[in-house]
Every structure is written in structure tokens, then in C-alpha cells.
Design brief:
321 residues, alpha/beta, Rossmann fold, 7-stranded parallel beta sheet, 3-stranded antiparallel beta sheet, 15 strands, 20% strand, globular, hydrolase, Subtilisin_Carlsberg-like, serine protease, serine-type endopeptidase activity
Length: 321
């Protein structure tokens, strides 16, 4: 079986400092849910990637725990620092703190569990990823926190029965598994490209659009795409305390993972009970806006988190006359 790899992505720019809410965070309407969700406080997202820069000023207070499953750092399990850059970028889109400096993530008060499964060169063994998924399911935080979302911006051409089984176990335990669709797209909606674990039916497979809501020409299209998110020239945290604009379905994925970190506490508060993964999924899909592409390209459309609030406002205006 071939290795699992970072889905190839493009680095558009590396920036020393910035102070802005990234366009993608605005496009998915994250800020409109911040007040009623307290920015995702209490949610824990497991990021299965290249690690995370542990002392990045935008991220250091967001990291709740972590583990290294690779052979990097002489196989030191407790060193899950990022020596590639990709994992740090993904982490920022999910959880970069709102402090008026740098960038801000979709769920700025959520916590991240950093599981390093890809080495410095961006590749890793399927076994490491399976072990990381299993670890995420067993993990408990200092106050009994559990992982509710697993974010994976990685992929390979081969199916793995064992990885599939681990993912199904996660779903059964109420954990949403969010995966990148892959960047092997040919710009045509009617041809299918598959990368695993993204193409498994049980995961939430994410394709990419640009900031004008146009489908990215590289995004994989297939019959298992669930929805799309911003993935072109996405600004987020990077190594050495810097920031970078990266492009790929890898960058779209954490928008959805962060969105779920806001959505899960919100809808569980509304329904006053814990909800299954399928129920959470249906709440997510209710908050998508079709963009006019085929289902194989955009799935249910672009995640627009404030959609239900807008519908309620519209409806109350309509009924009050």
C-alpha cells in the first residue's frame, strides 16, 4: 500500500505579520455565530496532520494536548511540533485566537488536539493515521472533554479497510470526520477523482471554491462530495510565527471543521441533548447554499453558517403582517 500524503497544495505567499479576519472565515459566516456559541468554547477538534507550531502567538493557547505518531524528532511521542507548515496553517483556520493581531479562526475559542501523523516531507504511514484516529476517540481532556470533530487534510489513492473501520467507529461515537476531497481535479465536473479517506461515504468530504464562490479548477469531483468551502489563497498561521496564503482542498477542510466546532454546541443547546453524527451532519447541510454546480462538484453547496438565522428573520417578518 502506498503512503498517505499531504494533498499537494500551493503556497501563494508567506507574510511576517497581519491583522485581519481572513476572507474565508467571513465567507462561511462564522462571526455571525460567535456570540451565541461563545466562539466554539468547549469544542475540541483533533487535527490529524503535520503537527502544529506550539508557540505560535495565535495558537499556543488553543492547543489542549497532542501526540506524535511519526518517526520525526527521533520518534519522541511528546514532540508534536510542526516541521512542515501545513498543520499549523490548518490549525489557524480552525482556532486562531481573536486578539486583534494576526488572523482569526472560524471557532476562535475551540481547542485543538494536535496529532502529528505526517513527517517533515508531508508523508506518513496508514498505520500512524489509524492509530491517531483511535487515540482521538479514546482521548479525554482535563475536564472530561471529548473530541467531537476530526479534521484530515490528507489523502492517498488506496483504500484501507482498517482506516475505514476506524472512521466508522468514530462516526458511531458521535464524532464528525471532515476530509479534503483532493486536488487532482481536471476542471471538469463530469469526471470523477477519488482520494481516501475523503471518498468514504461516512466522512464529510470537502471541495474548494475561491473567494468569488467559483469552483476551484483543481478540486476533486465525485459522487461523495458533501459540501464546499474557501480553498484558494487562504490566509492562516504558518511556521516561525508567520502567516501564509495557501491553496488547496486542504485549506477548505478546516473551515468545515471549525464550523462544526461552532455548530455542535449551538444545536445541542437548542435541542437540549447530545446529538448523533448523522443529526449533526443534517444540521450542517441545512446551512449550505447551492452555487449552481453539479452535485458531484459542490455537493450541497457552500457552508453558510448564519443561513438558519436569516431564514428565521425572513419568516418572522413575513408572518408579522
Amino acid at each position: 500500500m502506498s503512503e498517505m500524503k499531504l494533498i499537494p497544495y500551493r503556497t501563494d505567499a508567506i507574510i511576517d505579520s497581519t491583522a485581519e479576519i481572513p476572507k474565508g472565515v467571513q465567507m462561511v459566516e462564522a462571526q455571525e455565530l460567535w456570540q451565541e456559541t461563545n466562539q466554539g468554547e468547549g469544542s475540541v477538534v483533533a487535527i490529524i496532520d503535520t503537527g502544529c507550531q506550539l508557540d505560535h502567538p495565535d495558537l499556543e493557547d488553543r492547543i489542549i494536548d497532542g501526540k506524535n505518531f511519526t518517526n520525526d524528532y527521533q520518534g519522541d511521542r511528546e514532540n508534536f511540533n510542526d516541521n512542515n507548515g501545513h498543520g499549523t496553517h490548518v490549525a489557524g483556520t480552525i482556532a486562531a485566537i481573536e486578539n486583534g493581531e494576526g488572523v482569526v479562526g472560524v471557532a476562535p475559542k475551540s481547542k485543538i488536539l494536535v496529532l502529528k501523523v505526517l513527517s517533515e516531507d508531508g508523508s506518513g504511514e496508514y498505520r500512524w493515521i489509524i492509530d491517531a484516529v483511535d487515540f482521538a476517540l479514546r482521548w479525554r481532556g482535563p475536564n472530561g472533554e471529548k473530541v467531537r470533530v476530526i479534521s484530515m487534510s490528507l489523502g492517498g489513492p488506496d483504500e484501507s479497510q482498517e482506516l475505514h473501520t476506524s472512521i466508522k467507529a468514530a462516526i458511531d461515537q458521535g464524532v464528525s470526520v471532515v476530509c479534503a476531497a483532493g486536488n487532482e481535479g481536471d476542471g471538469r465536473e463530469n469526471t470523477s477523482e477519488y482520494a481516501y479517506p475523503g471518498a468514504y461515504n461516512e466522512v464529510i468530504q470537502v471541495g474548494a471554491v475561491d473567494d468569488k464562490r467559483s469552483l476551484a479548477d483543481f478540486t476533486n469531483t465525485n459522487d461523495q462530495i458533501d459540501l464546499v468551502a474557501p480553498g484558494v489563497s487562504v490566509l492562516s498561521t504558518y511556521l516561525e510565527g508567520k502567516y501564509a496564503r495557501l491553496t488547496g482542498t486542504s485549506m477548505a477542510t478546516p473551515h468545515i471543521s471549525g464550523g462544526l466546532a461552532l455548530l455542535i454546541p449551538l444545536v445541542e443547546k437548542q435541542f437540549q441533548r447530545s446529538m448523533s453524527e448523522a443529526e449533526i451532519y443534517s444540521q450542517l447541510i441545512k446551512r449550505t447554499t447551492p452555487l449552481g454546480y453539479s452535485k458531484a462538484a459542490e455537493g450541497n453547496g457552500l457552508m453558510t453558517l448564519a443561513l438558519m438565522n436569516k431564514l428565521e428573520e425572513l419568516f418572522s417578518t413575513y408572518t408579522s403582517h
